[in-house]
Model the fold of this input.
Amino acid sequence: MIHRLEIPEDITPENPAYEAYSVYNEVVDICMNAGAYSRDLLMRIVRDNENTEYGKKYGFSEIRSVEEYKKKVPFSVYDDYAEAIERMIRGEKNIITAYPIIHYAVTSGSVDNPKNIPVSDRTMDAYMKYASSIAQCVYDHGIRQIKGRPPKFGKQFMTAVVKTDYVKDGTLRGPISSAIFLKKKPFMHYVLP
Done:
């Protein structure tokens, strides 16, 4: 079962691991209240996008509950959005989202042709916050459990080969990890076992 982790006494607020533990505990709290969190998130997305083409089509301005959303908005798959996404790639705004799109994540195409998944600035910020913090927290906690001591901190030079290009409106397209590497500083904080 998932549970909160106490921040070790030797980790001060200046240490990046402090934020990592805090974010991990935030995720645990979200998991413990997943229904309420999901409902609130859905309603916020509906409110934020009621003036988009998609929001107007399905009456987002009238939706006040998950039940109303289920009644008004049909189940959908990527193909239902493909034409709208192509329009977004050409530079049109407020089609399926009001949020600025900063990246198109490309699927591997294992089932069909690769697909362009719009990634908003909010989604990217959340991905960067939660993915890196949880990884760092789990690593720190694991080293303490296995070796009986905190990890050693230092610097690391990271390299990655990622295939990216740009869509017609100039937005980056490629694996989501490529956007993260491009947003990070050349020298990233890391830990040694």
Summary: The CA atoms of residues 27 and 189 lie 22 Å apart. The two ends are 26 Å apart (CA to CA).
